[in-house]
Design a protein that fits this description.
The chain has 20 helices and ten strands. 28% of the residues are buried. The longest helix has 32 residues. The strands form two sheets. It has a seven-stranded mixed sheet with strand order 3-2-1-4-7-9-10, sandwiched between helices. Strands 5-6-8 form a three-stranded antiparallel sheet, with helices on one face. The protein is an alpha/beta fold and 493 residues long. Strand 9 and strand 10 form a beta hairpin.
């Protein structure tokens, strides 16, 4: 196709109709482009005018006639031309308002400097410091309608005087039993079940969780059981009769789900211990693991040696060492840094406790447990985890970052390993000694992290010992479906 044919075809096409501009619409002139120096000068002039006029902008005068219309159009064109610059100047003025916002800006800077939280774990709640909060909490119980036993138990949670999922859950249920015994619903209440739930149970549990320490999975499951027990009561029951049913349900829960479960786990796991020659490694302190070792040594008469592995800052393994050594069991006490040498040479079995059991078979336990399990798995040593079924959680967790608990960073700063009492509390005179990290808060580039738990993957666990039996980690989801809280409730039949 030649050039002449293309030109002829273009000439043959009908010409496009031009759009007519409407006569009743006034099109403003185009915004003039300002240089950087002009914009800066305009912003400085606006700031000066704002400072002199107290932040009020001069309003254009309305005039009649052609002169007034021309002046209005000129003002409108100038305003539109500087619209973007006004927004920029407003933003910069808000940022540079040194006279009015100097204090707030400096306080925000100071907060950033004082922030010692590791950014990767900044989503976790910060630990509460039990300095004078315990006394103020007890004094405010009358205003908050809380029983004095609630802040007392909260103080034990906060100071780590109560450690372990079983101990914390048992203390919580005992406190709820005390609250039920001393509680009487108002005479004008329509449904005592709603009143007990909203006025008695929830305030206490929220106080422990928000003001003291995040609750464990065992505490959450026990609290759900108690709420279900209250909801399943008959509405027409007398309060005294309903209270007796609730107290019996609490006692049955502790007996069946904690005590009897511990005995069954001891029986199942004890069958894996040989009569002579076993070297068993344990980490930290676990109530169910200590029980099965004591039963195997004292009741079954088996001879074995226990290696207790411990780690700072809680040093819970010292309690395990004291319990086992007093029972006449031969023990060895080491810290976590000597684990690789012992694991390769002596250990034949590893018994670990658990704070929670996820539905995908992973184990949430004291920080350091994952190191022990992974090292044992790499050396082909069987790892058995003792865990009651009431600690099973329907949550799936793949790492230790999303769900965890932060401990007090001051405990990491104190390098002295001496403890005062059963909880990991140091004396004030030892805290003030020349510790290497005593002034860590004043160092801008130093942050301390104290994690309470870690997650052990299911691939590093050989078997999970429950009151039902020894199960593979892949069967936890089936066990969770079978252990329905409705079946554990002792109702009114």
């Amino acid at each position: 196709m030649g050039a002449e044919e293309v030109a002829a075809a273009a000439a043959a096409e009908p010409a496009k109709k031009e759009k007519k501009k409407p006569t009743n619409i006034v099109i403003p002139p185009k915004k003039p482009k300002l240089s950087k120096a002009e914009r800066r000068a305009l912003q400085e002039a606006q700031r000066a005018a704002k400072a002199e006029g107290g932040g009020s902008k001069p309003k254009p005068k309305k005039g009649g006639g052609d002169n007034g219309a021309a002046s209005n159009k000129g003002a409108a064109s100038n305003n539109k031309a500087s619209g973007v610059d006004d927004k920029r100047s407003t933003a910069e003025g808000a940022a540079d308002g040194e006279g009015q916002e100097n204090n707030s800006g400096s306080s925000a800077t100071d907060n950033k400097k004082d922030d010692k939280t590791v950014s990767l774990f900044s989503h976790l709640p910060q630990p509460k410091h039990p300095t004078d909060q315990h006394l103020s909490s007890i004094s405010s119980t009358i205003d908050n309608n809380l029983h004095p036993a609630v802040p007392t138990l909260g103080h034990l949670y906060q100071t780590h005087s109560l450690l372990g999922g079983n101990a914390r859950c048992r203390a919580m249920l005992q406190t709820f039993a005390l609250l039920l015994q001393s509680y009487t619903p108002p005479p004008d209440t329509r449904d005592f079940r709603v009143d007990v739930d909203h006025s008695l149970l929830k305030p206490a549990f929220q106080y422990w969780t928000t003001q003291c320490r995040p609750h464990s999975v065992s505490m959450g499951n026990a609290f759900s059981f108690l709420k279900l027990a209250v909801a399943n009561l008959e509405r027409d029951l007398e309060w005294n009769e309903a209270r007796e049913i609730l107290l019996e349900s609490l006692e049955a829960y502790v007996t069946e789900r904690v005590q009897y479960a511990g005995k069954a786990i001891s029986r199942h796991a004890g069958s894996k211990i040989q009569d002579k020659g076993d070297v068993i490694l344990v980490f930290g302190r676990s109530e169910v693991i200590n029980r099965l070792l004591l039963d195997a040594a004292l009741t079954d008469g088996k001879t074995f040696r226990v290696i207790v592995v411990d780690s700072r800052p809680l040093l819970e393994g010292r309690d395990t060492l004291e319990i086992l050594s007093r029972a006449g069991i031969q023990c060895t006490y080491v810290l976590l840094n000597a684990l690789s040498y012992l694991m390769m040479r002596e250990v034949t079995k590893v018994f670990l406790g658990a704070s929670a059991l996820m539905s995908n078979g992973s184990v949430l336990s004291r920080v350091g447990t994952a190191c022990v399990a992974l090292l044992a798995n790499s050396n082909h040593i069987p790892v058995l985890v003792g865990c009651e079924t009431y600690k099973i959680c329907n949550r799936v967790q793949l790492e230790s970052i999303t769900g965890n608990e932060l401990g007090d960073a001051e405990e990491v700063a104190f390098t002295d390993c001496a403890r005062v009492g059963p909880s990991n509390r140091w004396g004030e005179e030892k805290k003030k000694d020349g510790s290497v990290l005593s002034d860590w808060k004043s160092q801008p580039n130093l942050k301390l992290l104290n994690l309470m738990y870690d997650l052990t993957p299911s691939s590093a666990v050989t078997g999970i010992v429950t009151e039902v039996g020894i199960l593979p980690p892949s069967s936890v989801a089936v066990l969770l479906r079978e252990m329905n809280p409705d079946s554990a409730f002792k109702g009114t039949d």
